[in-house]
Design brief:
- This protein is mainly β.
- 5% of the residues lie in helices and 50% in strands.
- It has 2 helices and 12 strands.
- The protein has helices spanning 59-62, 65-68, and strands spanning 2-6, 13-17, 29-39, 43-48, 54-58, 74-80, 83-88, 92-100, 114-119, 124-128, 136-140, 145-149.
- It has a 5-stranded antiparallel sheet with strand order 5-4-3-6-7.
- It is globular and about 65 Å long.
- The model has no long low-confidence stretch (mean pLDDT 85).
Length: 150
């Protein structure tokens, strides 16, 4: 069996071939609900909602998930062998539109078209022409596409 494996430590990808009957060491995975507190520069700080323990995860390990996180947001943290390894975002997130150009008179909800907008976390997305600054919109975190008003 040919596989592509990603190292959790540095994110590198390995091509590996395994023979039938080859054994692996068991890996213990666990997902915990935690609250994002702040970015300390080189690490993101999260707090366990149950025992208030704080952990730091290097920002390069968290990757693109940091773009979607606002302080005090609840997220799922994936632990592999008791070590935090990844932030699991929901499929859709509700965020306020921080800046966008005003819509042109005559644009309606069914008018089609889109314009660039910057969300409160700093992520740039395209929204329909009728969306104004300050509105809360639902965005798909995987495709970065507008879903609906929240």
């Amino acid at each position: 069996m040919r596989t592509k494996l990603r190292k959790l430590a540095d994110g590198s990808v390995l091509d590996k071939t395994f023979r039938a009957g080859e054994k692996f060491r068991p890996v213990r995975t666990e997902s915990r609900k935690m609250q994002y507190l702040y970015d300390s520069g080189d690490a993101a700080v999260f707090m366990d909602n149950n025992d208030y323990e704080q952990i730091e995860i290097p920002t390069d390990a968290v990757g693109e998930a940091m773009e979607w996180l606002l302080p005090n947001a609840d997220v799922e943290i994936l632990f592999v062998d008791e070590k935090p390894s990844d932030v699991q975002l929901p499929g859709a997130i509700d965020m306020k539109v921080a800046t966008t150009e005003p819509g042109v008179k005559g644009d309606t909800a069914s008018g089609g078209g889109s314009k660039p907008a910057t969300l409160e976390s700093g992520v740039a997305v395209h929204v329909p022409l009728f969306i104004e600054e300050g509105e809360v919109v639902r965005i798909d975190t995987r495709s970065r596409e507008y879903i609906s008003r929240a």
